[in-house]
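Q: I have two molecules that I believe assemble together. Could you output structure tokens for the complex as a whole instead of separate predictions?
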Amino acid sequence: MTVESGAATTAALTLNQPAPDTPDQAGEFIQLLTPEGERIDHPDYPLDLSAADIRSMYQDLVLVRTIDTVAISLQRQGELGIWASLLGQEAAQIGSGRALSPQDMVFPTYREHGVAWCRGIDPVKLLQLYRGVSHGGWDPAEHKFHLYTIVIGAQTLHATGYAMGIQRDGAVGGDQAEAVIAYFGDGATSQGDVNEAFVWASVFNAPVVFFCQNNQWAISEPLEKQSRIPLYQRARGFGFPGLRVDGNDVLACYAVTQKALQAAREGQGPTFIEAFTYRMGAHTTTDDPTRYRLASELEVWKLKDPIERVRAYLVRTGLAEPEFFAGVDAEAKQVGARVREACRTMPDPPPLAIFDHVYAEPTAILRAERQQYAAYLDSFEQEGAR
Amino acid sequence: MTTLTLAKALNAGLRKALENDPKVLIMGEDVGKLGGVFRITDGLQKDFGEARVIDTPLAESGIVGTAIGLALRGYRPVCEIQFDGFVYPAADQIISQLAKMRYRSRGQLSLPVVIRIPCGGGIGAVEHHSESPEAIFAHTAGLRVVACGHAADAFAMIQQSISSDDPVIFFEPKRRYWDKGEVDAANGVAAALPLDRAKVALEGTDVTLLTYGPLVRTCLESALAARGDGRSIEVVDLRSLSPLDMDTIGASVRKTGRCVVAHEAPVYAGLGAEIATRITEQCFYQLEAPVLRVGGFATPYPPSRLEDYYLPDLDRILDAVDRTFGY
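A: Yes, here they are, computed for all two components at once.
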């Protein structure tokens, strides 16, 4: 594009500036555990968790970070084609994931390894997609955790439609009420599908929680390329509540998600949760964040680490002994070793699996292609045998 | 037998589907009180309620995307896209989500979603209201693509599509909505031809004319006109565009030795190309002439005052038929 005059250049630059009255993007958020590990109360989110619950949350946080670290190594060693790291987002995922009831349904992006963990999915199954042996890898019905969706934001409409199905099944209100949670990132909020999902959820009052992990970066684009106002404030324009939570605070993420899910189950419709967090790693293993962000930014966020604050809290309050932490570390080692080994020994599917499950029943054209290709492959084996 | 317009036959078929299966839903823009801009869903919301016949917000991706979610929950949504040229905002949801979910899940998830699209030209409409995008969807593995050409097929095929466990793109020839035909509305669809089968609409011996949707009638009229010249044309209504019924197509071409494929969509990289190639591969020694194609030009759809020049008509079809005798 050529710029015709100096005035045009100025105008273009001005368009990229935040609106003058834009509030600080960090701003206020709901927090129950400070980065220093200090427990604070919030009038709207009383939290009654036992010491065992918090220890268990800590354990989950450590384990999913370990799995993530192992997966990054596996990619570096050529065992995975790519990996989308959740580093820094553990609290947002474990907090919201543990707030789910068994009957609730999850629609994840491709980065929700922590939520998958909460839904009881073996992390080895997550690796199948990234190793290239499957486009999916688990039974969505068994875990009530849909397959990873790679096209940004597309799953928010699936979540909303599923929630409309819950309404039609009469599963809103009552003991067995169900809700849906849709995960997506800050970049996705610019997608048409996400905005359409907001419109649908709003006008149909669908029992869905929109959980946005604002990790500040959509690959190389910072939040200000997506929005001139804090993301959670957008919900108001769609007609449902939006709130911002400290996405690095597992207790706050748990509390706000639980409340939003309960509201959805009771028929109060959707809620938008902006979990304010930070992508401490690269977008994926193919990305190089040094090209677009300063190392000092990461240093600031390291001080807000989602795991360290829970550890600090447990230590300070005496709710966990050194043996507990040693036990978690040992378990992490064990899980990591198992994931590593299972990935390395994961077999490729047979070539003819290419043709499976395109339709409920294979079409004549598919059957013919499969047969011809099988004969072609066989011809090599026969040649080799001679 | 009842005489119904194609539009009323679709309406009757949708009504049957809603009656027979409580999981069937209808969703789209203006499908409720208005009954759709072509009145295909006329009266259905009144009889089946707003929870089953859903007036949606105005966004095609939203319609298909939420239909996918409803299907994951066990429903069988039938989406109406108001006009052919409005389907593209839903392209990601159709091509990347709907078509691929079964494959992605290795057979664990099935999405029985029907997407109804009024297609084709001939109604004097403005831009985006006269297109024939079937090749885009036929090119997408995981979708079934069908086109009805007359009332009886409209009634049966819409019900078969809704019963299908695969997603179906259902093309309706909008300029034929008001064509009347005999429909066996009292009986179910058990006796109907399977959804993936082509049908010999008119038997002939000299040349095979393959077509679908709005051009079925045009081709039948062409065949009748050609009789005056002593030429016997066999008209095959493909009905299913993906998968193609190559058995029926091949049998006809092997019998006649000549073949013309006619569709409204542009010839370039259109369905005719795929069909002609397969015929050449499978019927090479029975062919007396190359398979010829008649269709839209390699242009966008023209302004409507020119559409009679653009759309294949009786003369252009018979011109192509004549040319197959020139080899």
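A: One point stands out. Chain B has two domains: 2-183, 199-323.
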